[in-house]
Amino acid sequence: MSRFVLFVGCVSGCVLVLFAPGLITTLHAQPYPNHPIQFVIPTTPGAGVDIMGRLVAEELGKILKTQIVPINKPGASFTTGTDAVVRSKKDGYTLLYTPSTAIIYARIPNPDLVPYDPVEDLEPLGVHAWNPMILVVKEDSPWKTFSEFLDHAKKNPGKVSMSIFGALAIERFNMEIVKSLTDAQFNLVPFKGPAEALGAILGGHVESSFIGVGLALPHVKEGKLKALLITRKWSELADVPTITELGYKKELDSGWFAFYAPAGVPEEVKAALVPAFEKIARNPELKARIDRMGFVVDYKSPAEHKKIMIEGFEAAMSMAQKIGAQK
Length: 327
Fold this sequence. Notes:
By secondary structure, this protein is of the alpha/beta class. 43% of the residues lie in helices and 20% in strands.
């Protein structure tokens, strides 16, 4: 009896040894994804991009049938978290959801200070949503339309005050585009951030400002501010024109939010992620939720995404050089 047990044990062990390599190969050959994915959001919890990123992560988990773990890595105008993804393993288990600031505007003042090249170091997986900006003035201001505002600025060059924040934030670029299209001149008043810039116009310290829709909308609804211009059409401010609707040939810029993996991820990873992200962007219920937050979902494919990255950086760099704000 003992010899039989010993024989069976030997045979079982031999079979296990013989099939162990195949077992290991099978485990490694499991289709992507086969374990949790880290989803890096390069800002603090509770910010607009963080809220959207977490909504996306939840939907991505349902589609891929795996756990998606949102991870906040704030710092240095979204570049800290972005760089962490650039340096991560190229296996598709570390992904990035970031605004265009980390891709374009943070690099403009001094590109050498940003440790990555987005075009070379990141794999674009699609643009998800856009952040419309509005040009606002106080409700009791004499201007009812952008044309009236512009006419006054032209007749009084350098006297209409406009709050700006950050040396080269997107709001500053939009103001420069308005100047280049209209030949109007403004008195620029710098502030530390958008909240301070908004407070200045609400307090009557400046006369105008470009502000993100999500931040300014409550004050527009309360009748404290008037929106004269919007950078991208948005449902709740459908009557506010874009600059191209007023006959100008160049659009103003809206920040965007997009998906990335580190450059060099396998094709099977991209084949799984790209349709998943497109499905998320076209989800009507999620689109409606994001629209109510003040953002516009408008999906762009990876090829379009890459073009937007390259052309956006070139345009911003050209503008920065023109105004002497690039080292």
